[in-house]
Design goal:
alpha+beta, 2 domains, nine-stranded antiparallel beta sheet, 24% helix, disordered N terminus
């Protein structure tokens, strides 16, 4: 396992929040907030001005404090995994590769007591996020399930419509490993056991965001990152071991051959998905740690997109470094559909090769690719577009690929088709002609050392 890294949250989400509080990086809302739209409105408004987490200590109709935007900062994600500036893709890619080699003895079974309380779904915050949502939703619930045949655990995300104390209606995409598990269990007339983890540790959250082959276990990423075994505890009614530090655990069974009305719901792409026939998750038990936090995520917001961007960038990075020289870093910026690649340009047509490789990485999401030189900040689209507009003719540095379908879109099959590539690099061998102006010492300046107010 990897050596331990400092300045990172290895265990409880509440410890991570406490550290952020100590660093004065959390916005606190102490007045009572209505979970029906008002809480979501505050989350949306705050994220337009800051990437700080926001904590609601007094939410109407519940005793649980709600935290949001924990993962809405690229720099916080890099710190969580111990990566240097601009090094998320390479660092996390190395962790994913090494974790695949870990043996199965990576967990530590905690032999109670677990300091747990039990209750009902109605006691949890019921947050309605968007105007036309069908009801309150669990949006940051990590779903833990096991492969029905191999028993390998899997972490993923699924939204959950909070219906009553007996059921959650959930949307499970057929292309997910979870969808594969559900279909196989149903074909045998069996329910699929699923534990919903709300407020899991930050590294569990990042592991759930990561796509690995179906035969691999995402929780090994946590062990590889921390250099320590993952503490787990048994469920009360399910044959599952859940991360012991999780704030809230909902034990459910996805019932076979049972469909329930679910949605509309405001999805990550800024549109409502229409009403559909989802799946019935029968609630068997709900437990939480004393003074537990409820994590709520506004879909399509900074917190939703930042981790997703990072993981899709890492996937593109891994493909690129295997096939093409000169790859420095990759980012997905502003929208999930745009990938930006930083290269050390080595030949004519280098940027075009990068674009085609990126388009092949994930045809559902990589609809646009921009390639830049090593002196451009790929996390700043203003800088990226400056490079495109300032380093050559704009009409000769685009690549259009026609008739390439994407995944299914709510507004009709293949609504998004085709790809666009933008070469924002300087002409090969002439980068020195486009040397950028710099101010010596700017990067070393800490304004807090000079200004009393700014």
């Amino acid at each position: 396992m990897a050596a331990e890294t400092t300045n990172r949250a290895d265990g409880l989400m509440r410890d991570y929040l406490a550290a952020l509080f100590d660093q004065k990086q959390v916005s606190l809302v102490e007045r009572q907030v209505d979970p029906h739209f008002e809480l979501a409105a505050l989350v949306a408004k705050s994220q337009k001005h800051s990437d700080r987490p926001i904590l609601f200590s007094n939410v109407k109709n519940t005793s649980f404090p709600v935290v949001s935007n924990i993962y809405g900062s690229e720099s916080r994600l890099r710190t969580l995994i111990g990566a240097e500036r601009d090094g998320f893709c390479q660092h996390w890619s190395n962790i994913v590769k090494a974790a695949a080699q870990l043996d199965d003895d990576y967990t530590n079974l905690i032999d109670g007591p677990y300091d747990l309380e039990s209750g009902k779904l109605s006691e949890l915050p019921h947050i309605t996020w968007h105007e036309k949502d069908a009801g309150p939703y669990i949006t940051a619930g990590i779903v833990l399930a096991k492969d029905p045949d191999t028993g390998i655990p899997n972490l993923s995300f699924s939204r959950g419509m909070m219906v009553n104390n007996r059921e959650i209606h959930c949307c499970i995409d057929s292309v997910q490993d979870l969808g594969n598990y559900r279909a196989r269990a149903e074909s045998n007339g069996q329910p699929l056991e699923v534990a919903w983890l709300i407020g899991a540790s930050p590294l569990i959250f990042l592991a759930a965001c990561t796509s690995v082959p179906i035969e691999q276990d995402e929780m090994k990423l946590v062990a590889q990152t921390t250099g320590k075994k993952v503490n787990v505890r048994p469920c009360k009614y399910l044959d599952l071991l859940v991360p012991a530090e999780t704030e809230i655990v909902i034990e459910t069974r996805i019932l076979p051959n049972q469909r329930r009305t679910e949605a509309p719901f405001g999805e990550f792409n800024g549109y409502y998905c229409p009403q559909n026939q989802g799946f019935a998750a029968e609630i068997l038990d709900i437990s939480w740690r004393k003074n537990a936090y409820f994590h709520g995520l506004l879909c399509g917001s900074r917190e939703d997109m930042t981790p997703m961007h990072a993981m899709f960038a890492m996937r593109a990075y891994r493909n690129l470094i295997n096939d093409i020289p000169g790859i420095i870093d990759v980012a997905c910026n502003t929208t999930l559909y745009c990938t930006v690649v930083k290269i050390d340009k080595q030949f004519e047509g280098h940027a075009q090769q990068v674009m085609l490789n990126v388009f092949a990485t994930n045809p559902h999401y990589n609809l646009a690719c921009m390639v830049v030189d090593k002196d451009v900040d790929i996390y700043d689209l203003n800088d990226v577009w400056w490079a495109y507009l300032a380093r050559g003719p704009i009409d000769k540095r685009t690549l259009l690929v026609n008739n390439v379908p994407s995944g299914y879109d709510y507004r009709g099959e293949h609504f998004h088709s085709g790809r666009i590539g933008i070469d924002a690099t300087a002409p090969y061998g002439r980068l020195e002609e486009f040397e950028r102006t710099t101010v010596p010492g700017e990067d070393d300046i800490d304004l807090d050392d000079y200004l009393t107010q700014y």
